[in-house]
Amino acid sequence: MKIGIIGAGFVGLSMGTVLASKGHEVVLIDIDKAKVEKINSGEAPFYEPGLDELLRKHAGKNLKASTGYEALKNCEIIFICVGTPSKQDGSVDLSYVKDACEKLAEILKETGYVLIVIKSTVVPTSTEKEFIPILEKSGKKAGKDFGVCMNPEFLKEGTAIRDFLEQDRIVIGALDEKSGNMLERFYRENFPSSPIVRVDLRTAEMIKYASNAFLATKISFINEIGNICKKLNIDVYKVVEGMKYDPRIGGHFLNAGIGFGGSCLPKDVRALIKFAEKLGEEPKLLKSVIEINEKQPERLIEIAKKRVGELKGRKVAVLGLAFKSGTSDLRETRALPLITKLLEEGAEVIVYDPVAKLPDELNGSVKIANSLKEAVEEAEIIKIATDWEHFRELEKMKECLEGKIIFEGRRIFDEKPYGLEIEGICW
Ligand code: UDX
Question: Last residue of a domain, which of 199, 226, 256?
Fold first, then answer.
């Protein structure tokens, strides 16, 4: 099948390479020329495990990237995977999706029936009220001359390829029966073991927000419980151990720590809050989820101050910049507010991350270490901001850690290694 994908970000590119590996002819469209060139030369424009390998195999063969929408002609299905960032007030910015629809409308003028699938995260009713009217500027009628579906993605950075190959569910929101059936057939043929949920467009849009809001709520919930546990000298991870066997609770996504970051959870919860407010609802729970999350990095500073006194002039190593392990992505990383606050406190900050690069705004204000050892050798206080497995190596660096304290913002050690001084953010 000839498949078009608009937006070669982490969702579009991961999905495109997987579909190419299934033998489809994939056309990726992106406005970023440098990115398009990189993809065509078989190189991944960002770090995502497994992506490089698939690109090397398929780029220039059955996967081609382009900046021009003409390449989408003759596609049977076109997925829109462009970003939906936050506006200043936290509400969702749909301009990239609208822009893609404007350009697609031009293509629609000259094509036969094609199925257009919105994969970008958009607030309920956006497809019906915002995108279909733009697509119909082509003079063609949605549900008759072209199909429309809303098919949210649930990929996690760092495991996007595997997540797409083994989707835990496929949600298909359809404008009409024909569109929904076409997308369902496509998924059944390519991913036969994934359950499919068929709904209407606005329900599919809501499923995505409700899923991410629920995940974020779990994290803020366990962080709040953890903050209480800390006062009582209780290990919140042991509390979860005792909760998880209840099938109504389960043990996933209850890792307490410095909070959630990334390109989706914070942005989507904020967008849902704004959207609910517009509808005249006050989303009290969701507001607390964000509030708890924003305060967690400060807690890592507070516990350190309580233990070692003022941080002014002290050398502090921050281990981890990425918003989680397995990615170089810094978006909404909790490491950033942590570093900013440390600098405000007058600390000298040394950072180390095995993959992620220092964001421009911190250039010149912090020192970068080239290795874990270098970071901890120089510092007297160590703070862990990302759950990189690599940080377990600290266990082997006891000589450089003598007399120093490690403050865990992410749980690295379930059992404190003998000879290391470790204190958890909420355990
Ligand atoms: C998330 C959703 O999981 C995914 O379904 C959606 O498509 C995109 O957003 P992602 O942003 O890749 O995926 O990261 P995720 O693994 O969900 O982690 C988000 C943040 O929460 C990270 O900062 C992570 O460290 C943190 N987290 C996660 C916790 O603090 N505790 C947990 O128990 C789990």
Answer: 199
